[in-house]
């Protein structure tokens, strides 16, 4: 399937984009939101990302500006019709802009909910029977500590199987839980142990914020009565 990049911090947009891509038979490519220009260029080229979802900005990151530096053609392109000499695979940039206005050459994230026709939805439904358990569903990049990051492809079977067994091991099948997710969705911890395991058992995910902040996590744990906390030592 076509590769759909998600270059963003945690949020409902990340969650929905991942599931939507899987449902449509596409492969989500989850990308570290801290990546800089050389790293995002490498990631897009490495796996041939065709469309990418980004927020306009997060903290010091200016995602649209960085993509526009890599692909100056974006400024004069029609939405979904980018033709970039440096990023030849990329044709669509989907942005969740802070102002709600469209940035040049992009599709506004909120517009995705009204763009599809009944015919488009029927096509997606007809694709369901063509998606096998062994079809690719997600690509994650390794940390790249000893060289360029490697792109690891995961299957629908691997995703679901891991989610079910991890959820069972954590006894999500015995009672309703509310999980405070402090781990990033671009990592297997947040993606599989977080999203897929919770979805397999109807467990609630609580996102304190787009990134880890102690005060926000403590507040979410208290207000949402979380019974499980996801986090790492560092």
TrEMBL record:
<dbReference type="Pfam" id="PF00501">
    <property type="entry name" value="AMP-binding"/>
</dbReference>
<keyword id="KW-0472">Membrane</keyword>
<protein>
    <recommendedName>
        <fullName>Medium-chain acyl-CoA ligase ACSF2, mitochondrial</fullName>
        <ecNumber>6.2.1.2</ecNumber>
    </recommendedName>
</protein>
<comment type="function">
    <text>Acyl-CoA synthases catalyze the initial reaction in fatty acid metabolism, by forming a thioester with CoA. Has some preference toward medium-chain substrates. Plays a role in adipocyte differentiation.</text>
</comment>
<keyword id="KW-1133">Transmembrane helix</keyword>
<dbReference type="InterPro" id="IPR020845">
    <property type="entry name" value="AMP-binding_CS"/>
</dbReference>
<keyword id="KW-0812">Transmembrane</keyword>
<feature type="transmembrane region" description="Helical">
    <location>
        <begin position="185"/>
        <end position="207"/>
    </location>
</feature>
<dbReference type="GO" id="GO:0031956">
    <property type="term" value="F:medium-chain fatty acid-CoA ligase activity"/>
</dbReference>
<keyword id="KW-0436">Ligase</keyword>
<dbReference type="InterPro" id="IPR000873">
    <property type="entry name" value="AMP-dep_synth/lig_dom"/>
</dbReference>
<dbReference type="GO" id="GO:0006631">
    <property type="term" value="P:fatty acid metabolic process"/>
</dbReference>
<feature type="domain" description="AMP-dependent synthetase/ligase">
    <location>
        <begin position="1"/>
        <end position="234"/>
    </location>
</feature>
<comment type="similarity">
    <text>Belongs to the ATP-dependent AMP-binding enzyme family.</text>
</comment>
């Amino acid at each position: 399937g076509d590769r759909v990049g998600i270059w963003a911090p945690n949020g409902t947009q990340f969650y929905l984009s991942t599931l939507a891509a899987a449902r449509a038979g596409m492969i989500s490519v989850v990308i570290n939101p801290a990546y800089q220009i050389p790293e995002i260029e490498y990631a897009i080229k490495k796996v041939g990302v065709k469309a990418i979802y980004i927020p306009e900005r997060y903290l010091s990151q200016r995602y649209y500006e960085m993509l526009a530096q890599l692909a100056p053609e974006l400024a004069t392109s029609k939405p979904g019709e980018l033709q970039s000499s440096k990023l030849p695979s990329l044709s669509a940039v989907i942005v969740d802009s802070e102002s709600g206005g469209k940035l040049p050459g992009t599709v506004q994230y909120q517009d995705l909910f009204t763009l599809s026709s009944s015919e488009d939805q029927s096509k997606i439904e007809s694709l369901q029977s063509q998606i096998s358990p062994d079809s690719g569903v997600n690509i994650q990049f390794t940390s790249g500590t000893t060289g360029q990051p490697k792109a690891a492809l995961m299957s629908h079977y691997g995703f679901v199987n891991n989610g079910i067994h991890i959820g069972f091991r954590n006894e999500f099948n015995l009672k309703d839980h509310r999980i405070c997710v402090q781990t990033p969705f671009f990592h297997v911890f947040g993606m599989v142990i977080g999203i897929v395991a919770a979805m397999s058992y109807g467990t609630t995910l609580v996102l304190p914020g787009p990134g880890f902040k102690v005060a926000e996590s403590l507040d979410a744990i208290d207000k949402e009565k979380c019974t499980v906390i996801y986090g790492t030592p560092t």
